[in-house]
């Protein structure tokens, strides 16, 4: 597959995936999601890669799913293979670091949660804002990180949290200055990668063995709830109102 919306590099045992839709705040288009799946599969089977780092660059991690596509296409196409995509990002066998600068919203927050370790710039912010459009956020990966009570609060309110608050919750592992963040995250990934890919994979499997057993089943259930909500006209109406107010459509 030829990549247009991501940039993939390999250096010193780290496979780096950089989201590359800066003008759209790295919104997760259907194409970008397909490219992410493909690149994770390829890096996951590359014996020269010890770990994988996903970043959006210095300005924005990801604003979530591309809402304009939800208006321009039918919902079935917009959410095509949504379960398979999430299963792919949450069940990567290799150790994954997500390096978050700027916003990680809705689906972008979900992608950040795919990291076994989350590194954040001091300007990073996280939020399950999709609840404001009448859609249930995916609770499982967040609850796995910070517990069910805090996960329910963030998912039901759509409240944004800063990098420092995310670190206090145990969501983010380390916070770095904004200037030079991507380079600092790459150095940290290199340090962790020296442990060796097989060792990191063993640590990951040992840590999440019980949780990973039910990952696919839990995600499938959550998306069955989502599909009921997406069938409502209210969802599309809220998106269209938001896009008009933001000037993205007329």
TrEMBL record:
GO molecular function: catalytic activity
CDD domains in UniProt: crotonase-like
Origin superkingdom: Bacteria
Family matches, as InterPro entries: ClpP/crotonase-like_dom_sf, Enoyl-CoA_hydra/iso
Pfam family, one: ECH_1
Record family assignment: Belongs to the enoyl-CoA hydratase/isomerase family.
Protein name, entry field: Enoyl-CoA hydratase/isomerase family protein
Organism: Candidatus Zymogenus saltonus
């Amino acid at each position: 597959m030829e990549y247009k919306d991501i940039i993939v590099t390999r250096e010193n045992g780290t496979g780096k995936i950089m989201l590359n839709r800066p003008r759209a705040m790295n919104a997760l288009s259907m194409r970008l999601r397909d490219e992410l799946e493909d690149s994770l599969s390829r890096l996951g089977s590359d014996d020269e890669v010890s770990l994988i780092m996903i970043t959006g660059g210095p300005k924005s991690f990801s604003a979530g799913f591309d809402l304009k596509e939800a208006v321009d296409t039918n919902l079935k196409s917009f959410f095509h293979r949504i379960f398979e995509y999430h299963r792919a990002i949450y069940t990567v066998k290799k150790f994954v670091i997500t390096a978050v600068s700027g916003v990680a919203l809705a689906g972008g927050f979900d992608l950040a949660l795919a990291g076994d370790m989350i590194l954040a710039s001091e300007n990073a912010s996280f939020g399950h804002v999709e609840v404001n459009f009448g859609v249930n956020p995916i609770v499982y990966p967040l609850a796995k990180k910070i517990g069910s009570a805090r996960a329910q609060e963030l998912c039901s309110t759509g409240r944004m949290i800063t990098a420092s608050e995310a670190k206090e919750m145990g969501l983010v592992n380390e916070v770095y200055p904004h200037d030079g963040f991507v380079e600092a995250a790459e150095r940290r990934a290199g340090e962790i990668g020296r442990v060796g890919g097989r060792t990191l994979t063993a640590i990951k499997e040992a840590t999440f063995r019980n949780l990973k057993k039910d990952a696919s089943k839990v995600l499938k259930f959550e998306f069955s709830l989502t599909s009921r909500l997406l069938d409502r006209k209210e969802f599309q109406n809220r998106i269209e109102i938001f896009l008009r107010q933001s000037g993205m459509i007329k």
